């Protein structure tokens, strides 16, 4: 069977949780003997078509249009359609992970192909956050833009034979946005982690490999440096604990537009000796980073629709100290409810970290955490069930 998967970016180009999700799906389909194509946006310096590990990768480059311009969406669809017309004349199934290239594919191949769509996060809610933190013009045009995005997402859902989401939180949001009838048709498939890759390792050995100190507790977080990830609040909470004399270090992995602002906050709070910004971590460094910490911290302030990094950290045998935002309680609460803060406010984050660092929170055996993470979120089992469900009714057995 010839399957096309559409997404915002290829994992090899721009690593992210969503892109990793698509990469694993494509690999599983290829393992099953299907011919797999993945379409995503790229840039002019990258090949429009290439094959990697048996997967056909396509990249489209939309015309440069201001983010507030309604023609931006049309440009994405036109560019995506053009690439498909040049390289992929027909398919048996289309699985969408992003609205614009998915609709471009459905318009090209028609509604006779098997269509499925995965909602990683409600488009209107996601873009509302992005635009709220943008410039004045973007904020002014947001109401019109959000309505257009909402219509596009609704069209994706209407034209899909099967729909999935990674959390009940996402399904509940879709119910509020598009109605309970639409939400009732969504299948819940939590994301997954490679439990063979993320396993409990020796903490001190991992720290030596990473160049981390071995004589103090270490908290680790891995986030894109954008406002909703809550890193500014985390720094403020760290400052409270340092003033109290609590000894520890915080390692922050990830890149993004807020780095300079966060580093300025770090200096103003006098945290240069406590907080280290690691920048983007290579994929092969992640198992060591999870293993090297005493606990992983997830300080999200809004719209966490799954939390892949939490599952990875738990699979690596580490506690996850988190805010009770979005889908996070669905994951962390399964393992230890007391690892959840009472809210996403600074004082509550500080209280949670204080309790952990002073030994007042329950700890669980790393092997037990790993086994439970594998049982509920192990990649091999989860991805097979997911692929089967998404292609149900199209010859998949």
Strand content: 15-25%
Percentage of residues in helical conformation:
40-55%
Mean pLDDT: 92
Q: Describe the strand arrangement of the main beta sheet, using strand numbers.
A: 3-4-2-1-5-6-7-8
By CATH, the topology of the largest domain is Rossmann fold
Q: Specify the CATH class of the largest domain.
A: Alpha Beta
Distance between the termini: 12 Å
Low-confidence stretches: none
Structural class: alpha/beta
Q: Kindly report the name of the CATH homologous superfamily of the largest domain.
A: Glycogen Phosphorylase B
**Sequence of secondary-structure elements:** EHEEEHEHEHHEHHEHEHEHEHEHEHHHH
Rg is: 21 Å
Number of strands: 13
Largest sheet: 8 strands, mixed
Tally of separate helices: 16
The rough form would be described as globular
How many distinct folded domains? Answer: 2
CATH architectural arrangement of the largest domain: 3-Layer(aba) Sandwich
Description:
- The strands form 2 sheets. The chain has an 8-stranded mixed sheet with strand order 3-4-2-1-5-6-7-8, with helices on both faces. A 5-stranded parallel sheet has the order 11-10-9-12-13, sandwiched between helices.
- It has 2 domains: 2-192 and 378-390, Glycogen Phosphorylase B (Rossmann fold); 203-377, Glycogen Phosphorylase B (Rossmann fold, 3-Layer(aba) Sandwich).
- Helix 10 links the parallel strand 10 and strand 11 (275-279).
- The mean pLDDT is 92.
- It is globular, with a radius of gyration of 21 Å.
- It has 397 residues and is of the alpha/beta class.
- The protein has helices spanning 17-31, 71-87, 99-109, 123-132, 136-158, 168-178, 180-183, 203-210, 231-243, 259-268, 286-292, 308-315, 328-335, 346-357, 366-377, 379-390; strands at residues 2-6, 35-41, 49-52, 55-60, 93-96, 114-119, 162-165, 186-188, 218-222, 249-253, 275-279, 295-298, 320-322.
- Helix 3 (99-109) crosses helix 5 (136-158).
- 46% of the residues lie in helices and 15% in strands.
């Amino acid at each position: 069977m010839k399957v096309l998967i559409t997404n915002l970016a290829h994992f090899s180009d721009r690593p992210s949780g969503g892109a990793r999700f698509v990469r694993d799906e494509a690999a599983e389909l290829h393992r099953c003997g299907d011919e797999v194509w993945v379409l995503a946006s790229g840039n002019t310096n990258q090949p429009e078509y290439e094959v990697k590990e048996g997967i056909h990768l396509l990249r489209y480059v939309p015309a440069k249009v201001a983010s507030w311009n309604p023609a931006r969406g049309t440009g994405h669809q036109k560019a995506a359609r053009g690439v498909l017309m040049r390289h992929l004349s027909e398919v048996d199934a289309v699985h969408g992970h992003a609205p614009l290239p998915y609709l471009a594919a459905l318009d090209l191949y028609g509604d006779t192909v098997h269509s499925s769509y995965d909602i990683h996060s409600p488009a209107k809610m996601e873009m509302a956050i992005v635009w709220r933190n943008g410039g004045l013009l973007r904020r002014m045009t947001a109401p019109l833009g959000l309505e257009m995005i909402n219509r596009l997402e609704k069209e994706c859902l209407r034209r899909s034979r099967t729909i999935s989401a990674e959390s009940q939180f996402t399904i509940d949001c879709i119910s509020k946005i598009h109605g309970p009838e639409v939400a009732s048709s969504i299948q819940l498939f939590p994301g997954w982690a490679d439990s063979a890759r993320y396993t409990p390792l020796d903490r001190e050995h991992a720290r030596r490999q990473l160049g981390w100190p071995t004589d103090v507790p270490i908290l680790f977080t891995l986030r894109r440096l954008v406002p909703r990830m809550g890193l500014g609040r985390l720094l403020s909470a760290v400052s409270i604990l340092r003033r109290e004399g609590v000894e520890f270090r915080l390692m922050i992995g990830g890149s993004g537009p807020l780095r300079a602002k966060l580093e300025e906050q770090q200096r103003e709070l006098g945290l240069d000796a406590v907080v280290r910004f690691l920048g983007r971590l290579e994929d092969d460094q992640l198992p060591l980073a999870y293993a090297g910490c005493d606990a992983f911290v997830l300080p999200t302030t809004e719209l966490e629709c799954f939390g892949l990094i939490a599952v990875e950290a738990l699979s690596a045998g580490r506690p996850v100290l988190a805010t009770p935002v979005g889908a996070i309680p669905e994951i962390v609460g399964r393992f230890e409810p007391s690892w959840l803060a009472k809210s996403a406010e600074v004082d509550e984050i500080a209280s949670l970290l204080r309790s952990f660092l002073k030994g007042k929170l329950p700890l669980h055996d790393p092997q037990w955490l790993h086994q439970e993470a594998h049982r509920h979120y192990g990649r091999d089992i989860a991805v097979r069930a997911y692929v089967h469900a998404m292609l149900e009714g199209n010859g998949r057995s």
